[in-house]
Specification:
By secondary structure, the chain is an alpha/beta fold. Helices cover 28% and strands 21% of the residues. The protein has a single domain, classed as Alpha-Beta Barrel (TIM Barrel).
Length: 134
């Protein structure tokens, strides 16, 4: 994956978006590592809040971290919520004066999230629905 990101920069991309899901007891303790990774790089690291879908309710209960918790932590550390840009999609984007990279939070449980979503999910059986409807 890292080689692919480097190849994107070598090909002339000015910014790369990387999606990940922050999960309690899996990778939430690595927030500082994630932040250090984007400090010198023009990467928008997008944390997608874990969603309760289908038969995954036990996984959700065990590992879900509210996007609000992460947003509050970023604000506490001096990150600034940016005005929404068209290229942000469903993410709330944050920047910090000491970082080249940005953080995007995709929080499906946030008020009016679905009203601004422009994503589509296609299932293996070729059915389509809004991305976060299961």
């Amino acid at each position: 994956m890292m080689a692919g990101i480097d190849a994107a920069f070598d090909a002339g991309f000015e910014k790369v978006k990387v999606n990940t899901v922050l999960m309690r007891d899996v990778n939430h303790h690595q927030l500082d590592t994630f932040l250090a990774w984007i400090q010198p790089r023009p990467i928008q690291l997008r944390f997608i809040e874990l969603m309760e879908t289908g038969e995954g309710s036990s996984l959700f209960r065990k590992h879900h971290i509210s996007g609000q918790v992460l947003r509050d932590e970023l604000l506490r550390r001096g990150w600034i919520h940016q005005i929404r840009q068209r290229s942000d999609g469903p993410a709330q984007v944050f920047c910090h004066p000491d970082y080249v990279g940005e953080i995007g939070l995709i929080m499906p449980y946030e008020k009016d999230f679905c009203a601004t979503c422009n994503r589509l999910r296609v299932f293996l059986c070729w059915q389509a629905s809004s991305v976060f409807i299961w």
